[in-house]
């Protein structure tokens, strides 16, 4: 039989587990925003501070990575046409991981508590290893491979590298042993996490989801291949050079490769958007489109870091962090969640009733007006936050965090509405 | 050289004139003249499958096709035909044919029916219907009716073929339930016999955002019966739709045309417990 034909198979993704990850992630997002609000006075100065590290990991581990785990349990079966290897492993992973996140956030927040850094780091590494094994064992049974699979596979590699670097950093905090600067190693950890893990997943998945939601076709994915090689080679180089005290010209070269890769990716996404059949962008796609713009800005900003002492400019690292974590990653996740969650719930509850009884429309499952308000509140928050961090105006930062907090609660409300509809 | 593994579409593309041969051999192939059906069906069916679908002898079909494209192959093909045919004939006598008494045999010679230009299929099926549990059906023919093996196999019949000079004697015997259930399982895993359909309903969902394609397809299902096939023009493979079709007793075959274009054929599942 030729490989362009597939006879219907059933790869139904595990709804219950996916939703469990999603709900926990949404709760983490609200907690993150409320903590920013409560500790707004700590959000200034150098990024290596207990509270900033704690709050940051609630977002990166509790929200972003949690969502990615849930989304991959959903998307790997659909995109690669294979059954998830084990639902039980996904369940076990959830508990180990969640406890790990809570303990790590606690330990960072109360830096001097008797709990070691190593213990939560071990839990997180075990959970991430379980995840990787589960996905890899699913992937080896895939019959029709595609570019999304390639991106996801490399993302898994970088997830393990991030976990390993995180574990070494945690040990170093307990008893220092890393010969090079701890902060340089932290940089490796962060770059690998943002670009290798999160962005590789985001980019790989976007080649499937964005055309599906915008109904784009008739474009080529040539640039996507270039991005894959450039970013991965650049990251391998950075991971290597960061082990030396002097990174010099090599850092510049590898940083440049990653930058070009990301630029090509954005051009690719722009091409897909241009070829779309539905011209009007709904709320999910508005969030996503904004995220891609900020992704470009933050890539440019990161690239510029190669040429001057960015740590000398007050709060610039923090500004960069907020751009990446809120403006790019969180906006994109929220946008995609407004598309995916209604569909998942609809599919789970109503798809068997189509043609038999009346089923709700996706856009009726949540309050789109409220989602619009959330969108603009988050943008205004970001616009207020950047100059207030730059000029160190804490009362303005407070306003931004207030806007973020309200919008995260609106998001939680809308997601709850979808789940209960 | 046309082989039994070659796809029908491949042959029709290379040698457009062979369409006449197909139609000459069986009126079933008239559907291939229809461009939509040709694209949707022929690209996935090879000569062997087509022969069994249309109920014609594979070797005869291959022979005629090869003769049409190149007369030099005639002799070569003839030899191959001979050897392949002999392979099809079972070597050892099955249990149920030993201790055979004449009164247990129901005989049907289909050669006169074929000569009068009619299809003996219905006559065979009527005989099969009237057959008692311990009786054996004997069909006499001038060629080996290979498609009949799978048709009757699906109904739980085992066959034994004997060649006597220029005629073929085929014995059919119904197996016990447990044995033929496994045969049915095998059958249902094979691709459905598309040429049986008489009506095609086409819908294009390429301009609809999810989940509207799924809604539209599921809503159209009420119009799909055993003789109707639903041809959906889709912008991707509808992986999430498959379980929902399964639930309602339908199955689908997706055929990738290009990255953003899939043809999805949806049909009612065959009843397997006849």
Beta percentage of chain B is 15-25%
Order of helices and strands of chain B: HHHHHHEHHEHEEHEHEHEE
Specify the number of helices of chain A. 12
How many domains comprise the coordinates of chain B? Answer: 3
Q: Please provide the count of β strands of chain A.
A: 1
What is the gyration radius of chain A calculated from CA atoms?
21 Å
Query: How would you state the average pLDDT of chain A, rounded?
Result: 91
**What is the strand tally of chain B?**
8
| Largest interface in this structure | A-B, 32 and 35 residues
Task: Give the CATH architecture of the largest domain in chain B.
Answer: 2-Layer Sandwich
Distance between the termini of chain B: 40 Å
**Could you name the CATH class of the largest domain in chain B?**
Alpha Beta
Q: How much of the polypeptide of chain A forms β-strand, as a percent range? A: under 5%
- Put simply, the count of helices of chain B is 12
Gist?
The complex is a heterodimer of chains A (421) and B (274). Chain A has 421 residues and is mainly α.
Explained architecture:
The complex is a heterodimer of chains A (421) and B (274). Chain A has 12 helices and 1 strand; from the N terminus they run E-H-H-H-H-H-H-H-H-H-H-H-H. Chain A has helices at residues 15-38, 50-80, 87-109, 118-139, 147-174, 182-214, 222-241, 248-274, 283-304, 316-349, 368-390, 394-420, and one strand at 5-7. Chain B has 12 helices and 8 strands. Chain B has helices at residues 8-14, 18-25, 35-42, 47-54, 58-69, 73-88, 111-115, 121-130, 146-154, 177-189, 212-220, 241-247; strands spanning 105-109, 136-141, 157-164, 167-174, 199-204, 228-234, 250-258, 261-268. In chain B, helix 2 runs antiparallel to helix 5, helix 4 packs across helix 9 (146-154) and helix 5 (58-69) runs antiparallel to helix 6. The radius of gyration of chain B is 21 Å and the shape is globular. At the A-B interface, strand 1, helix 6 and helix 10 of A face helix 11, helix 12 and strand 7 of B.
């Amino acid at each position: 039989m030729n490989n362009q034909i597939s006879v219907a198979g059933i790869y139904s993704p595990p709804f219950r587990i996916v939703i469990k990850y999603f709900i926990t992630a949404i709760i983490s997002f609200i907690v993150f925003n409320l903590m920013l609000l409560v500790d707004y006075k700590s959000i200034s100065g150098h990024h290596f501070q207990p509270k900033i590290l704690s709050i940051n990991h609630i977002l990166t581990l509790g929200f972003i990575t949690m969502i990615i785990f849930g989304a991959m349990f959903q998307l790997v079966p659909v995109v690669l046409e294979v059954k998830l290897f084990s639902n039980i492993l996904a369940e076990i992973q959830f508990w180990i991981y969640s406890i790990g996140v809570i303990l790590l956030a606690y330990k960072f927040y109360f830096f001097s508590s008797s709990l070691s850094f190593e213990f939560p780091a071990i839990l997180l590494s075990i959970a991430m290893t379980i995840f990787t094994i589960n996905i890899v064992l699913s992937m080896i049974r895939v019959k029709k491979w595609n570019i999304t699979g390639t991106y996801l596979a490399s993302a898994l590699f970088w997830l393990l590298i991030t976990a390993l670097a995180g574990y070494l950093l945690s040990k170093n905090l307990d008893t220092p042993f890393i010969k090079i600067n701890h902060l340089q190693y932290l940089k490796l950890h962060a770059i690998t996490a943002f670009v290798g893990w999160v962005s590789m997943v985001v980019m790989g998945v976007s080649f499937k989801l964005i055309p599906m939601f915008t109904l784009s076709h008739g474009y080529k994915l040539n640039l996507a291949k270039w991005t894959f090689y450039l970013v991965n080679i650049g990251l391998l180089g950075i991971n290597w050079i960061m082990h030396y005290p002097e990174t010099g010209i090599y850092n510049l070269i590898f940083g440049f490769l990653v930058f070009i890769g990301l630029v090509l990716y954005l051009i690719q996404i722009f091409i897909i958007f241009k070829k779309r059949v539905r011209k009007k962008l709904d709320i999910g796609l508005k969030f996503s489109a904004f995220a891609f713009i900020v992704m470009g800005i933050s890539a440019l900003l990161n690239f510029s870091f190669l040429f001057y002492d960015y740590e000398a400019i007050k709060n610039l690292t923090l500004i960069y962090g907020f751009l990446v974590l809120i403006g790019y990653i969180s906006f994109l996740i929220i946008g995609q969640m407004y598309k995916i969650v209604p569909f998942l719930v609809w599919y789970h509850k109503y798809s068997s009733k189509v043609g038999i009884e009346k089923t709700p429309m996706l856009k009726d499952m949540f309050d789109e007006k409220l989602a619009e308000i959330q969108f603009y509140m988050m943008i205004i928050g970001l616009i207020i936050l950047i100059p207030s961090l730059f000029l160190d105006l804490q009362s303005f930062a407070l306003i931004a965090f207030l806007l973020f907090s309200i919008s995260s609660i609106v998001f939680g409300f809308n997601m709850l509405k979808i789940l209960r509809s | 050289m046309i082989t039994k593994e070659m796809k029908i579409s491949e042959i029709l593309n290379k040698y457009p004139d062979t369409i006449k041969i197909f139609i000459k051999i069986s009126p079933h192939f008239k559907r291939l003249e229809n461009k939509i059906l040709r694209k949707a069906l022929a690209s996935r069916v090879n000569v062997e499958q087509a022969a069994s679908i249309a109920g014609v002898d594979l070797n005869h079909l291959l022979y005629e096709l090869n003769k049409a494209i190149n007369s030099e192959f005639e002799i070569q093909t003839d030899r191959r035909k001979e050897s392949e045919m002999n392979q099809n004939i079972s070597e050892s006598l099955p249990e149920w044919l030993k201790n055979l008494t004449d009164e247990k045999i129901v005989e049907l010679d289909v050669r006169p029916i074929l000569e009068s230009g009619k299809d003996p299929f219905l006559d065979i099926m009527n005989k099969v219907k009237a057959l008692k549990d311990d009786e054996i059906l004997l069909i006499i023919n001038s060629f080996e009716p290979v498609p009949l093996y799978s048709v009757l196999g699906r109904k739980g019949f085992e066959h034994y073929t004997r060649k006597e000079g220029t005629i073929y004697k085929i014995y059919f015997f119904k197996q016990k339930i447990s044995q033929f259930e496994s045969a049915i399982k095998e059958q249902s895993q094979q691709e459905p016999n598309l040429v049986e359909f008489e009506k095609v309903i086409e819908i294009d969902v390429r301009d609809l955002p999810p989940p509207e394609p799924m809604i539209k397809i599921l809503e159209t299902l009420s119009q799909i019966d055993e003789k109707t096939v639903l041809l959906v023009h889709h912008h991707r493979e509808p992986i999430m739709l498959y379980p929902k079709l399964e639930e309602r007793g339908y199955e689908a075959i997706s055929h990738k045309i290009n990255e953003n274009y899939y043809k999805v054929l949806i049909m009612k599942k065959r009843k397997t417990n006849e």
